[in-house]
Design brief:
This protein is mainly alpha-helical. Helix content is 86%, strand content 0%. It has one domain: Four Helix Bundle (Hemerythrin (Met), subunit A) (Up-down Bundle). The structure holds fe (ii) ion.
Length: 187
């Protein structure tokens, strides 16, 4: 079921946001976060929402706009929100790169940029869980789901397959493992 999968993906995203937040706390108190973990999370967010998660949501949202325009209007401009999230992520990339390259950047600014990204993503996910998914479940017809599913499986992009899901699962597992190792070393 598509909405179930999208919800599951939201929980996965939240897990990574929590790890990023934890590394940020370490940075905030003046210690060195595990940059392998931070980089891993950035890579995940650079790829996963763009090529996998958002395209699925876009298909569902397009149907919602047809079936229940008022509900779709309440959700708002999904594409724009996704775009803004990507912009915030780019600022995170720049800030982290600056730190790693020892370029002049205030620690405070780095903290602010990363926190801004985390909070924006959380709010966005919360809105989708609260407004978008229930509205879609209510308004879409069985044939809509069938069409969405077939659009997804007929996608020529190899990233859009079951294999893609496995790749992202593996990437996430690797990040969580690195985080566990970093934590073990810290204590
Ligand atoms: Fe989403």
């Amino acid at each position: 079921m598509i909405i179930e999968r999208l919800s599951r993906e939201h929980r996965n995203i939240e897990m990574l946001l929590a790890v990023l937040e934890h590394e940020l706390e370490i940075f905030d108190r003046g210690d060195r976060p595990d940059y392998e973990v931070v980089r891993g999370i950035i890579s995940y967010f650079e790829l996963y929402p763009e090529v996998y998660h958002h395209p699925q949501e876009d298909l569902v949202f397009a149907k919602l706009r047809i079936r229940d325009p008022a509900a779709a209007a309440k959700v708002g401009n999904l594409a724009l929100e996704h775009q803004k999230g990507a912009e915030r992520l780019r600022r995170v990339v720049q800030a982290v790169d600056s730190v790693l390259a020892d370029r002049e950047i205030l620690r405070q600014n780095v903290g602010h940029i990363v926190r801004d990204f985390i909070e924006y993503e959380r709010r966005h996910i919360m809105m989708e869980d609260r407004d978008f998914f229930p509205a879609a479940l209510k308004a879409l017809e069985p044939q809509d789901w069938t069409e969405i599913a077939s659009a997804l499986t007929s996608h020529e992009d190899p990233l859009f397959s079951e294999a893609a899901e496995e790749t992202f699962d593996a990437l996430r597992a690797r990040i969580l493992q690195l985080e566990q190792e970093a934590e073990a070393e810290r204590h």
